[in-house]
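Researcher: Please translate sequence to structure tokens.
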Amino acid sequence: MFLNSVLVAVTNLAAGLLGNASFRRHFHLVLSGLVLFGPALSLWVSQYSIFANKSHYLYRKFLRSGWGWTCIFVGSFVFLLYFSVQRSLALSLRHLSRLATAGLLWVGFRRALSLLENATGSCYKPLSASVGGQLPQGLTGGGAGQPLLLLLREGETKTSCLKSGMLWRGYEVSEDAFLLCLCCLLLAEETAVFGPYLALGGVSGAPLRLLFLFCVFLLGLWVFLLLCLLAHFPQFPTQLLGGALGCLGWRSLYQGWYRLGPSWYCPGRPGVGLLTTAGKPRQNT
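Model: Translation complete:
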């Protein structure tokens, strides 16, 4: 009984915060500010921090599977939330299609980024020193403390180049920044309806509340990992471009396409078909 009271209190508090109109209007601005000014944190963080190691547990287990974790928790929460109100599988699947659309956006971004990198980059082999003090043809110096690079084949792909133990130089956009920004904004959008839903007296058992808390925890984790990447592994402007594209993808979907309303070509915004029926008593059959 005590644990259930704590669960209700914590979820009500978190739902009230995420459902607040000011939070919903300004969260993307806060996230944009983090991406823009986050690299400045590298001036104060320690290079000996456990988060300065890219093989850290959080990077290996969560960041590399970020989209999978987001789909598991958000998908479970969305399905249970909408199904608990109207017992409609079609309604639940329609709202789940927003995740499928965002997944297609993520896959399309990775494919486009791979094509861009392969088209604009080149594969290099690092050399410790030049021969006879002269730079042979095709050899470039990266400045003080930078290894000399010997240009190899222009036709190499990034994947094959890195697998061969060589270096790749080209135009890049941060996949991690794109994914984390997109997941943060998606989580904020999908969980924001829970506060108004509770305020209308919607059904909210322990499983639904626990899933909601998992989503809130995941949102906090993604923001934390984004800060860690910006502070410990600053890459300007690749992270800025990745974050900007992530915000653009969110705005195109949630602030653009989904506003057209539910139809055969649009799943609609979060809360459609939920908030209007949450407070109505169910009819006994």
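Researcher: Any highlights?
Model: The first strand starts at residue 122 and ends at 127.
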